[in-house]
Amino acid sequence: MTQTRTYDDQNDGQKDGQKDGQRGGRNDGAPDGAGESALSVRDLWKIFGARADKVIGTPDADLPRKQLQAKTGCVAAVKDVSFDVRPGEVFVVMGLSGSGKSTLVRLLTRLIEPTAGTVTIGGEDVTKADAGRLRDLRRHHVAMVFQHFGLLPHRTVMDNVGFGLEVRGVAKGERRARAQEMVDLVGLAGNEGSFPDQLSGGMQQRVGLARALAVDPTLMMFDEPFSALDPLIRRDMQNEVIRLHHEVGKTMVFITHDLQEALKLGDRILIMRDGEIVQIGEPAEIVASPADDYVRDFVSDVPRSHVLTLRYVCRRPDGGDPGEGPALQADEVVRDAARQVLAAHGPVRVYDGEDFLGIVDDEDILRVVVAEEEAVGS
Ligand SMILES: Nc1ncnc2c1ncn2[C@@H]1O[C@H](COP(=O)(O)OP(=O)(O)OP(=O)(O)O)[C@@H](O)[C@H]1O
Ligand SMILES: [Mg+2]
Q1: Closest C-alpha residue for ligand 1 atom 2
Q2: How remote is the CA of residue 287 from the centroid of ligand 2, in Å?
């Protein structure tokens, strides 16, 4: 991880407003049915290699990636992965280089064919779709934003943004009107006639965003779209995604190897290692209870007070709800709650909606802040 880590705008309010409607649901990755999911992935595998189809169902499938490769020459890039993404959710997939993120996202629209498993998008089983349906899906329902922008160099900004509509056969007038709307939306007005090489990296990626949005997809996928950008531009673009998500409310699958980006953008985060899921959870949940040392390593230098919510800090008092004193909601971030808790001169009650969860006092808050100081100092 080489990016400069920034937290200053983590709690800028935009994100919280956008998240409110999605709280209080399931926290696990694989709920019962695929019916209410925007995207549902079940038992998905991708094994590369000549004998790829002979691995699943044998004891070799359980071998660690390196051993499987040594024994069979096959690489298990994605290994028995299942999860669901809710409509309107920003679902982040993160992991170190080689953990299988790009392979996973390409399996979702079968840019790479799965070795086994199913993918359901908007209720349709993508893994059973024929070539025509698949084309339809890629043109109408899913748009991707790539790391290296993927713009057409000999086309202007307008014509790049309108490209997906052109492929779809939308008439020129309508196409231009829609493209203009998207150019305005991503803040590129005035650059309609420019060619990609006349734009900065950040502007080029805005074109990539506008192009993806132009087709009004139900699902947007991002594969490390900002990792080629320098840290300040990168932060602008992250805020841009948050703003756009707020305005257009698309379901997003966002891949990154940067934890700060994941924490900032994700409603939930899936952490991968060697093709497998290590943990799925809300940012605060991942920071509060990392599943293993791999995740603990990732989150060790996160300023906990910026991410942890009162849900993970409060404790049960003896004798239940004391019934008096100030009250706060469980999704309040510790840093934001600190002033009120410290001013309260006694325990503050924490509620999840109407439900009493526990109490926090100044010591609980200080414990988080002190742990943070220690992490930064180490
Ligand atoms: N076409 C292929 N043939 C063989 N192995 C592959 C192929 N594509 C990917 N792999 C292997 O699958 C594993 C996962 O690769 P993948 O590109 O999905 O990782 P990633 O998490 O996107 O990494 P990065 O952060 O570097 O982009 C790696 O070990 C990679 O070498
Ligand atoms: Mg990748």
Answers
A1: 48
A2: 24
* 300: its two tokens: 């060790």
**Ligand 1: distance of its center to the CA of 102 in Å?**
7
Pocket test of ligand 1: the residue of 67, 92, 101, 294 to mutate, having most ligand atoms within 8 Å of its CB, is 101
pLDDT in tens, 30-42: 444 445 899 999 9
Q: Taking 50 as the threshold, does the pLDDT of residue 25 lie above it?
A: no
Q: How far is the CA of 365 from the centre of ligand 1 (A)?
A: 42
**β-pair partners for 268:** 91
For ligand 1, pick from 3, 66, 74, 75 the residue to mutate: most ligand atoms within 8 Å of CB.
Answer: 75
- Tens digits of per-residue pLDDT, 128-161? 999 999 998 888 899 988 887 789 999 999 999 9
Using CA atoms, how far apart are residues 191 and 36, in angstroms rounded to an integer? 40
Strand bridging mode 90-95 / 268-273: parallel
Quick one: which H or E segment has residue 339? Answer: helix 334-343
277 pLDDT tier (thresholds 50, 70, 90): very high
Nearest ligand 1 atom to the CA of 99 is 21
Q: Which of 66, 96, 102 to mutate to test the pocket of ligand 1 (most atoms within 8 A of CB)?
A: 102
Phi-psi region of 117 (alpha: psi -120 to 50; beta: other; left: phi over 0): left
Contact criterion met (CB below 8 Å) for 7 and 236: no
Q: Range with the lowest mean pLDDT among 108-112, 145-149, 176-180, 334-338? A: 145-149
Contact 334, 365 (CB under 8 A): yes
Query: pTM for the complete prediction?
Result: 0.83
Nearest CA to ligand 1 atom 22: 102
For ligand 1, atom 11, the nearest C-alpha belongs to 77
**Phi, psi at residue 76, to the nearest 5°?**
-85, 90
In angstroms, what is the span from residue 223 Cα to ligand 2's centroid? 7
Angle formed by the axes of helices 201-214 and 172-185, to 10°? 130
Each residue of 105-132: pLDDT tens digit? 999 999 999 999 999 998 899 999 999 9
Closest CA to 346 of 331, 327, 332, 333: 327
The SS3 call for residue 271 is strand
Residue 315, φ and ψ in degrees, nearest 5:
-135, 155
